[in-house]
Design brief:
This protein is globular. It has helices at 9-15, 36-47, 49-71, 78-81, 148-156; strands at 2-6, 21-25, 95-107, 110-119, 127-132, 135-140, 161-162, 167-168. It contains five helices and eight strands; from the N terminus they run E-H-E-H-H-H-E-E-E-E-H-E-E. The two termini are 27 Å apart. Helix content is 31%, strand content 28%. With 175 residues, the chain is an alpha+beta fold.
């Protein structure tokens, strides 16, 4: 593993972060350094960080009402922990990126990226979002971002969730 941090100004501003987001590159020890596809993904994330963030927030906001329903019996103060939101950007007050993982599963000269988030309603499990470029592939717990099989299933699938067009053809979302 190659560990560093990622500077994403748009994300820092949106979440009010005071520090860099820790990052990890999963690479073949025999090769000894990150692959070109991982560097391509890193550069893509830096260049399109606003679009990636908006895609993530949009996908999370689609699942959020269901999570509110799931958690309504666990908290007496649900509206404090999981208030209703009117737009995806409001989630930035409830979640915070903790870690970015550049996988070694490749597609189209880039790799899949996992982002771990702390969330107000489940600080132990948190949230994990797997993306390919700005397309959200999977939403689950924070440990899911390390699951190669999720990325491999998406890579080998012909159907995808096209965030840009808003067309939902297929999307593996599990929580």
């Amino acid at each position: 593993m190659f560990v560093s941090a990622v500077l994403l100004n748009t994300w820092e501003k949106a979440f009010g972060l005071a520090e860099l987001i820790p990052a990890e590159l999963d690479y073949d020890l025999e090769y000894g350094k990150p692959t070109q596809a991982q560097w391509n993904s890193y550069e893509y994330l830096k260049e399109y960080q606003a679009e990636v963030l908006q895609s993530i927030l949009r996908a999370l906001s689609e699942e959020y009402p269901e999570w509110q329903e799931d958690y309504r019996y666990e908290f007496d103060n649900l509206q404090e922990i999981m208030p209703d939101i009117a737009e995806p950007g409001e989630l930035t007050g409830l979640i915070r990126p903790e870690h970015i993982f550049f996988m070694n599963v490749e597609k189209d000269d880039t790799v899949y990226i996992g982002v771990q988030f702390h969330c107000s309603w489940d600080p132990e499990e948190g949230l994990g979002v797997m993306i390919h470029k700005e397309r959200v592939v999977h939403i689950g717990s924070r440990k899911d971002i390390y699951q190669n099989w999720i990325a491999e299933n998406d890579r080998d699938s012909r159907e995808h969730h096209d965030i840009k067009s808003g067309v939902k053809m297929a999307c593996n979302i599990r929580f």
